[in-house]
Amino acid sequence: MNNLENLRLSNNGTYLGVIRLTVLWLGVSFCASGADATTILAPVAQAPPAAAGAAAAPAKKTSATAKARVRAARIRAARLRASRSSKALAEAKTPRYRTDEAGNVVPDVRAAAAIIYDPATGNVLYEENAQDERSIASITKVMTAIVFLETATDLNQEVVITRADTLRASTTYLRTNDRVRLSDLLHLLLIPSDNAAARALARLSPLGYDGFIARMNQKADDLGLNHTAYTDPSGLFADNISSAYDMARLISYASEDDRIGPIMRTPEYSFRTAPAPKRATRLITVRNTNQILRNGDMDVVGGKTGFITKAGYCLATLLKMPSGGPSLAVVVLGATSNLGRFWETRHLMAWLSERTSALSLSTPAVATAK
Question: Which residues contact 67 (CB under 8 A, 6 or more apart)?
């Protein structure tokens, strides 16, 4: 063969070699790819849907069981609370009596202190620890109203509620930047016992906040409330202290004020906040915290509730005796439950009415004060 043919054969051999190598490489790659695919796809083939569902079933069953247990626990807790409430109500509705040192049957109150006081004569008709100094909670707001009205001239004036008024106020229907009338603040103060309203009234007073507190204490001295001291206008501070005797005198004084008494006798009150930039008006409706007033079973001239943990449940009221009798102040401090303070008040008035009727007296007989 000539050189040209030798070159052609040589090239053909090289060409065929390249083809063989390429085929071999593809085969190896194909095999490798097939192994990877088998490795990846094998678990899917080995885990059919039915098997996966069967594996998940125990978890679902456990979850359902846990939910059922939680529901059952909640039901048991609700029944226990209902049972306790029922027992507490039954106990509160049942009056207790004891025999005093003179042999008289007198109320045995569950509260820490109590009194029946006749403001017309200054006589104490019944008392239990009535001179003890105790925290009085929101009964404080009675003095707040008295002091504010000493300098108030226009109760229709609109004012703006600040963050300082509403911050950690506990009980309030107000929001920061609300525009309300001073009259509305007084209603919020005495009807639902709004703490932000108390702060706002003290802040807006010409005396300033600190001057307002000082005036509250000065007014207590002026009225001869010797066991009374105030540190804030709302009653949230436990350092606001007084006695059942002092609060009986104060509620008598405030109830006869023609600006305060009618508010304390209001079962429900509604008003709208005034328009303000970027704020829609709101309708606010509040109910009186005094359940005796709302129930309408007694003639309430005035009253104020109070509660913080240190004080317990408190109530100061001025009530008309049945059949046109005099108005008497009844104060209960440190009752053990919300309902308890109202029932203690009813029991005290019922006892006094029976005693007055038995003695054929138009004015209640005076009990010996301790």
Answer: none
Q: What angle do CA 363, 352, 191 make, to 5 degrees?
A: 100
Mean pLDDT (whole number) for 111-123: 97
Q: Would you state the structure tokens that stand for residue 46, as one six-digit string?
A: 């080995």
158-217 pLDDT, tens digit per residue, is 999 999 999 999 999 999 999 999 999 999 999 999 999 999 999 999 999 999 999 999
Residue 35, pLDDT above cutoff 70: no
- List, by residue number, the catalytic residues: 138, 141, 193
In angstroms, the CA 314 to CA 136 distance is 7
- Whole-prediction pTM value? 0.77
pLDDT score recorded for residue 367: 54
Dihedral (CA of 256, 258, 260, 264) sign: positive
* Structure tokens that stand for 131 in this block: 């001179």
Predicted confidence (pLDDT) at residue 9 exceeds the cutoff of 50: no
pLDDT band of 364, cuts 50, 70, 90: low
Residues 102, 366: Cα–Cα separation, whole Å: 13
**In terms of Cα–Cα distance, which of 79, 188, 82 is closest to 138?**
188
Q: Tell me the two tokens of residue 277.
A: 């930039």
At residue 279 the predicted structure's pLDDT band, cuts being 50, 70 and 90, is confident
CA–CA distances in Å: residue 253 to residues 10, 23, 229, 345: 129, 113, 17, 19
